[in-house]
Design a protein that fits this description.
The complex is a heterotrimer of chains A (about 300), B (about 290) and C (about 450). Chain A is an all-alpha fold and about 300 residues long. Chain A has a domain at about 85-255: MetI-like fold, CATH 1.10.3720.10. Helices cover about 70% and strands about 0% of the residues of chain A. The two termini of chain A are about 50 Å apart. Chain B is mainly alpha-helical and about 290 residues long. Chain B folds into two domains: about 5-50, no CATH class; about 75-290, MetI-like fold (Orthogonal Bundle). Chain B has helices at about 15-50, 55-60, 70-75, 80-110, 120-130, 135-145, 155-180, 180-190, 195-200, 205-220, 225-230, 240-250, 255-275, 275-290. The mean pLDDT of chain B is about 80. By secondary structure, chain C is α/β, with parallel strands linked by helices. Chain C folds into two domains: about 45-160 and about 325-390, Periplasmic binding protein-like II (D-Maltodextrin-Binding Protein, domain 2), CATH 3.40.190.10; about 170-325 and about 400-440, D-Maltodextrin-Binding Protein, domain 2 (3-Layer(aba) Sandwich). The model of chain C is unreliable at about 1-45 (pLDDT under 50). The chains are: A mainly alpha (about 300), B mainly alpha (about 290), C alpha/beta (about 450). At the A-B interface, helix 1, helix 3, helix 4, helix 5 and helix 6 of A face helix 1, helix 4, helix 5, helix 6 and helix 7 of B.
Chain lengths: ~300, ~290, ~450
């Protein structure tokens, strides 16, 4: 026997509350935690950026937008940001160039796929501190593995102080970071590849496309979601990098690996200038926001075109 | 539509077979070389932990001549890694539970319900993904002090939960959106209220997403460095990442000891990862494909 | 209207949160919590059990053990006071001290750098307890070298007790010197000649590792002191002297450009950590280690195969030498401590003759106390150091007297000079610029 409902005649206000109540209640606990431990301090830090507080004085002096104006006069900031840009570009292209072919290879073999996947992914679970320490040792000019191997195979002329070389240091650190990150790309790309429609590839082949054309015109478009994911992770991460650089070079030598993350830390804590330091971190936030915005716009446009 | 795993070509022609064999060989060769480059540094650390300092200085690559466990035991006792690893566990598990619970609730709310300001709140949570910890680090410190949380584990657990929410909610809501709407509808028809629908019907289906979120959060919290440095001031509360940092300060040139400390720090995480690798990879990729 | 409502709600929500945040109340500088000094010498009358927390930087082996011993000895003498130590490495102590002291949850005593960029910042913020009355109560002036007070005085009040008398110069491998037919250099040119001979024989002449950037401070101190002397530095630090004067430029040039080009240092020294550089010296691969007397205990522990000698940085242009000397870190008391009496009691003990024995014999540090150390069992290096402090005319160790922005410019700038990206003249100009900015902001020592 069917149950019949008699609709309750509720006032519009009650209806509105009822309709919204459920959803709101679901997000409420998270919202409370988030408000207390994120939003509140975030707003306070905006306030700090308008002062010249040194982190210890009980009184904070309001200076308005002076810190923000100083941003433009700060040549070290420009230098740090340029390094971040290099990091973002190299740190995105390299793992993709390494990860994608590996994923293709993995998708073409039958056995051992999980074993290889797991092994490649291993560095990703290590913390930035550990990655920095391991590679700091590898790069050590006196006791390090890299120079030891180079000397051993007769390429001793190439051995040097990798992290002390102004032209190489940044790329050496990026290499360590890529080591930690490419496994993530392999796994994601492999998942995407496993969902690629082989019939489409076959159709292209019949139409006369060679392997490369098949890859670029049929397979890659089907990977656009995973490519997006990788890109956005890297973009946001590229502006917030800190742990690994701090451990390996502390922004040296002579500021050649100074990134906005290490620069902010230096200003806030080593130079007791929390006011300017929070201003710098606002820059980091804005950059991440801009990067994500572009990603969203790009994605929506892609979906519109609807390949 | 066919996927690549559904294709399987059988070559009868022995020449084609040989060609395939060489192709397979080279594929595995490349994969193996990359494997070595990937895993070698970690293996180096682990093997160095079992060597004496002199052995390392002589030949860093060689395998340890004997299982010299002194470094590990010294790191565990004198280096207080026994305490630090316990702290890591005490901090990480509640954080993971908290993030998973709250993210599931909120993710479901965003995925399946309409309410006022929904888009706004969602964006609000996403902002958390972009703000570096450094900017809220100091004000949060004073907040914690005002709540009298500073001398406790909660000084790390609660903020970690709060900061893990943006990613968690994003992940869970994407997953919930992928579930068929009929599920919750049928529940409501049967007379369940919203929460019962959530608890009895939806939740049991989210195991892959929950496990992948749990693992992400576990890794992140286990490896956190800056937060415990500032909020967990006392040595008795320090997790392994801090122990490692301070350890390096004590034994900077003693690579044997440092390797031992790194080994102790990485081993539990890697073990957990290896045991749960399938869930991890599955959940990770599910999120990737749904986009 | 529909969109406005949630926005308003959140705005109110958020404003409420921010408003509820208690702003830290400014503390008046001298704390009224200090127990009025009594005429009685040591043990406080009401012997209730108190615990004081000490944050220091003695993380390494012997220093750590020696400090623990001092704590044990103290607690045996004063059973009502429990001392808890928290040793923290020097790279991290700054972050931890600054946040924890301000909150009131921090340690009672900190062992911290005495310079204006370190303890000075804390003192100016009212986070440290002025110790003038305790100097009187415990009669420290009769025991502790009074010139050390200047280093811990900010705005006319004494905030701490300086420790670790140290000076800079060169340890050298006596065996290798004999082997190569070398003797201690008397002039800068002698030093260059030694470097050449060492290089030819396949050794690293000077194990200078500038990875952490601060070793460069000491090198700069050594050459500058020998070129302009203590008076010259007095003029710059306290008067109107300038860092971009020709002598200072020459000081930078001689070390960071000329000696670097001559191959005196570890190649790629910016990639080498301080400890790696020391290890190079200990393992007999480098002849000379230019650093400070704080390393004596480490040297004694790690050098097994050769004899270690010492010479001061040689004279330049026949001018008199002034080995840079100064204090290392010092002990300071938190303004928010609940037990100032117990805390200062501990400090009093640390600077007693009994404690001096442990400092010197077991930890290899020289406390600024008037003590007859001839009865102590000191290593030859330490004996020499103690004697030198009393007999040799010393200069200034620059980085403990300069503000943090200046030190950052030294650190990054000297690396740039060594890489050939900056000239010595440019670096001197940059240093002067930063110095003047700090002066204007009131950040330098008076």
């Amino acid at each position: 026997m069917a149950v019949s409902y008699r609709p309750v005649k509720a006032s519009p206000a009650l209806k509105w509350i009822n309709k919204n109540k459920a959803g709101f209640l679901f997000i409420l606990p998270a919202l409370i935690m988030y408000a207390i431990f994120f939003i509140s301090p975030f707003i306070t830090s905006i306030y700090y950026s308008l002062t010249n507080w040194n982190g210890v004085d009980p009184v904070k002096q309001f200076v308005g937008l002076k810190n923000y104006i100083n941003l433009f006069k700060d040549s070290l900031l420009g230098l740090s940001l340029s390094h971040n840009v290099i990091w973002v570009i190299v740190g995105t292209v390299a793992p993709i160039l390494i990860g994608l072919p590996l994923a293709v290879l993995l998708s073409n073999i039958k056995r051992g796929r999980l074993f290889f996947q797991t092994s490649y992914f291993l560095p990703y679970v290590l913390s930035g501190v550990v990655v920095g320490m391991i590679w700091g040792w590898i790069y050590n000019p006196l006791f390090g593995l890299l120079n030891y191997i180079l000397k051993g195979i007769g390429l001793g002329a190439l051995s040097r102080g990798w992290l002390g070389d102004p032209n190489l240091a940044l790329y050496a650190v990026i290499a360590a970071a890529v080591w930690g990150y490419f496994g993530f790309c392999v796994v994601i790309f492999l998942a995407g590849l496993q969902n690629v429609d082989v019939d489409l590839v076959e159709a292209a082949r019949i139409d006369g496309a060679n392997a490369l054309q098949q890859f670029f015109y049929v397979i890659i478009p089907q990977l656009r979601h995973v490519l997006n994911m990788v890109l956005v992770y890297t973009l946001i991460g590229g502006f917030n990098v800190f742990d690994i650089v701090q451990i390996m070079t502390v922004g040296g030598p002579a500021n050649h690996t100074e990134l906005i993350g290490t620069y902010t830390y230096k200003i806030s804590f080593q130079q007791s200038n929390v006011g300017y330091g929070t201003t710098l971190s606002m820059v980091m936030t804005i950059l991440s926001l801009v990067a994500s915005y572009f990603y969203i716009v790009l994605r929506e446009r892609q979906d519109e075109v609807g390949q | 539509m066919r996927t690549i795993d559904q294709t399987h070509v059988i070559y009868r022609n022995p020449l084609a077979r040989a060609r395939r064999f060489t192709a397979e060989f080279f594929k595995y060769l490349i994969l193996a070389i990359v494997l070595v480059v990937t895993v070698a540094p970690v293996m180096l650390m682990w093997s160095s932990a079992l060597k004496t300092k002199q052995e390392i200085n002589k030949n860093p690559i060689a395998l340890p001549t004997s299982f010299y466990t002194d470094n590990l035991t010294k790191a565990w006792t004198v280096g207080r890694f026994s305490r630090y690893s316990l702290n890591s566990i005490i901090i990480t598990i509640p954080t993971v539970l908290g993030v998973v619970a709250l993210s599931c609730l909120a993710g479901y709310g965003f995925a399946r319900h309409q309410f006022f300001g929904k888009r706004f709140f969602f964006m609000l949570f996403l902002v958390g993904l972009m703000v570096p910890f450094q900017s809220i680090m100091i004000p949060l410190y004073f907040n914690l002090k005002d709540f009298k949380l500073l001398g406790t584990y909660f000084a790390m657990i609660l903020p970690a939960i709060g900061l893990g929410l943006p990613f968690g909610i994003y992940l869970m809501q994407a997953f919930f959106r992928g579930l068929p709407v009929e599920l919750s509808d049928s529940g409501k028809v049967d007379g369940c209220n919203e929460f019962q629908v959530f608890w009895h019907i939806i939740l049991p289906l989210t195991t892959p997403a929950i496990s992948s979120l749990a693992i992400f959060q576990f890794v992140w919290t286990w490896n956190a460095f800056l937060m415990p440095l500032i909020y967990l001031n006392k040595d008795e509360f320090r997790p392994m990442t801090l122990g490692l940092m301070f350890f390096q300060g004590r034994y900077t040139s003693d690579y044997a000891m440092i390797s031992a400390a790194v080994t102790l720090t990485t081993l539990p995480l890697i073990l957990v990862y290896i045991i749960l690798q399938r869930q991890f990879l599955r959940g990770l990729t599910a999120g990737a494909i749904k986009g | 209207m529909k969109k406005l409502f949630p926005l308003l709600f959140v705005l109110i929500f958020v404003i409420g949160l921010v408003g509820c945040q208690a702003t830290p109340t400014p503390t008046a500088a001298p704390q009224a919590t200090a127990v009025p000094p009594t005429a009685e010498p040591t043990i406080p009358p009401a012997a209730e059990k108190v615990t004081i927390k000490v944050m220091d930087q003695f993380t390494e082996g012997e220093a750590n053990a020696g400090m623990d011993k001092l704590v044990q000895m103290f607690m045996a003498k004063y059973p009502n006071i429990t001392v808890q130590r928290d040793p923290v490495t020097s790279d991290n102590i700054r972050t931890m001290v600054q946040t924890s002291l301000a909150s009131g949850e921090g340690p009672d005593i900190i062992y911290y750098d005495t310079g204006p960029g370190f303890a000075g910042v804390l003192a100016k913020a009212g986070l440290l307890l002025p110790l003038d009355e305790y100097y009187q109560q415990y009669n420290w002036d009769s025991r502790i070298f009074t010139w050390t007070k200047a280093r811990t005085t900010f705005d006319g009040k004494v905030y701490g007790i300086g420790n670790e008398l140290e000076f800079l110069g060169a340890y050298y491998n006596k065996n290798l010197f004999t082997q190569l037919g070398l003797s201690e250099p008397k002039t800068y040119d002698d030093l260059l000649a030694i470097c050449q001979k060492a290089k030819d024989a396949g050794y690293v002449p000077i194990s200078f590792g500038d990875g952490p950037k601060w070793p460069a401070y000491h090198m700069f101190s050594m050459t500058t002191n020998n070129l302009i002397g203590r008076d010259g530095l007095d003029k710059i630090l306290y008067g109107n002297g300038r860092w971009d004067s020709p002598e200072v430029i020459r000081a930078i040039q001689l070390f960071f450009v000329d000696m670097n080009k001559a191959g005196c240092f570890i190649p790629d020294s910016a990639a080498v950590s301080y400890d790696d550089a020391n290890t190079l010296f200990y393992s007999g691969k480098a002849l000379i280690n230019l650093t400070g007397t704080w390393l004596i205990s480490d040297v004694n522990t790690n050098v097994k195969d050769f004899e270690v000698g010492w010479f001061f940085f040689p004279a330049i242009d026949n001018k008199p030498t002034f080995p840079p000397a100064g204090l290392g870190s010092g002990y300071f008391v938190s303004a928010k401590t609940a037990n100032p009496q117990a805390a200062t009691q501990f400090l009093d003990y640390l600077f007693s003759e009994e404690a001096a024995k442990v400092w010197m014999e077991e930890m290899g540090y020289i406390p600024p106390i008037k003590v007859d150390s001839s009865k102590f069992n000191l290593s030859p290096l330490l004996k020499f150091a103690v004697g030198a402090l009393q007999s040799q005319e010393m200069g200034y160790n620059i980085d403990v007297l300069t503000p943090d922005t200046f030190n950052t410019m030294m650190g990054d700038g000297f690396q740039a000079v060594m890489l050939g990206e900056k000239t010595a003249e440019q670096q001197a100009k940059d240093l002067e610029k930063v110095w003047e900015e700090a002066k204007a902001a009131g950040k330098i020592l008076q």
